[in-house]
From TrEMBL:
Catalytic activity: nicotinate beta-D-ribonucleotide + ATP + H(+) = deamido-NAD(+) + diphosphate
Organism listed in the record: Miniimonas arenae
Nucleotide-binding is among the record's keywords: yes
Pathway: Cofactor biosynthesis; NAD(+) biosynthesis; deamido-NAD(+) from nicotinate D-ribonucleotide: step 1/1
Designated name of the protein: Probable nicotinate-nucleotide adenylyltransferase
Domain of life of the source: Bacteria
Coiled coil: none
Alphabetical list of Pfam families matching this protein: CTP_transf_like
Amino acid sequence: RGGTGARRARRRTGIMGGTFDPVHHGHLVAASEAAAEFGLDEVVFVPTGLQPFKTDRRVAPAEHRYLMTVIATASNPTFTVSRVDIDREGTTYTVDTLRDLRAERPEEEFFFITGADALSQILTWKNAEELFEAAHFIGVTRPGHDLDGHGLPVDKVSLLEVPAMAISSTACRERVERGKPVWYLVPDGVVQYINKHRLYRVDEGG
Ligand code: ATP
Ligand code: MG
């Protein structure tokens, strides 16, 4: 913009953290919408290690969650998966995720994609001010729902309506446990992976 020479704009990178237990089409639609709406060159999915707000239930082993995320994103050239959170010891904090990715990608502009539910808690997260310095935040909401203020810095947060918000990992796990299908809620390869490893069955698998 202006100036001499053909200086390229900074690469724009979406970051989608999640437990991905399992990854589902809500996550993929949100990433796709964010990429289209914000002109992202890449969306990096980052499966979490241990999570501060999910200590009350059993979570499938990180390698299973990681591999399901790889399977779900493999066919999209702009989607990638990072191991930074699962390779780091201990509880996952978003501030550490952003620090590790920044070290790997010093020149990129970061857009952290998160559900509006989580976004409204963000001020309670570890190092909230540093987070807003490290990335622009995209809060995905259900069509028709609005996120009022919550004291979030307006210049650092954008809201994005996505159509598949009704899908949740919790519902997918419960369906598998009760023997109901999850076809079309999660990618085909993820259905097959869940079956192959007998995930989310009571007293079995991960
Ligand atoms: P759980 O039911 O176990 O909480 P989840 O479906 O919310 O799982 P997470 O892995 O916790 O999935 O979510 C990762 C990120 O994706 C979070 O920012 C979450 O708000 C967002 N997200 C979850 N479900 C959807 C959806 N259907 N559409 C868009 N974003 C979603
Ligand atoms: Mg959730």
